[in-house]
Backbone:
């Protein structure tokens, strides 16, 4: 089966569809966190600690797409709420290691479980095959964008 070249979306059209879908999906995902009173960056920090364990502050930032200044503010905010601990590294006094408190773990487990259920509900519109295909396509597009950025 050949595709009519007139029906192939342009790069601009693909980008616009991707951005519109991203915005809608991101808004839907954010709705699952609203009752927790966790902002986006706080949720991301707690989620990475839940799934990766205790980490140095400077290692968390890149994983959750926060600058060094922003990650410090986020960790301070979570510390003040009693959701994380900060301790000096035993091997390097310049490094502060962040971990979940029992209260923080309980909160993020509950919020993440709800969030995951809502995202599963969202993805139900796709067949198993479409999920696999979409993940492959998005990964391919993302890796290509990274390569092009490296060349620039």
Residues:
């Amino acid at each position: 089966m050949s595709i009519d070249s007139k029906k192939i979306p342009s790069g601009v059209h693909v980008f616009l569809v991707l951005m519109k879908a991203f915005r809608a999906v991101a808004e839907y995902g954010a709705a699952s966190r609203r009752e927790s009173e966790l902002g986006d960056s706080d949720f991301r920090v707690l989620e990475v600690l839940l799934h990766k364990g205790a980490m140095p502050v400077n290692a968390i930032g890149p994983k959750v797409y926060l600058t060094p200044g922003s990650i410090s503010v986020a960790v301070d905010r979570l510390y003040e709420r009693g959701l994380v601990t900060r301790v000096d590294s035993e091997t390097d006094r310049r490094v502060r290691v962040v971990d979940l408190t029992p209260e923080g773990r309980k909160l993020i487990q509950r919020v993440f479980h709800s969030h995951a259920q809502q995202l599963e509900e969202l993805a139900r519109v796709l067949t198993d095959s479409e999920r696999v295909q979409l993940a492959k396509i998005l990964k391919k597009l993302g890796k290509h964008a990274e390569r092009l950025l490296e060349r620039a």
Q: What stands out?
A: Residues 76 and 104 are 14 Å apart (CA to CA). DSSP finds six helices and three strands in the chain.
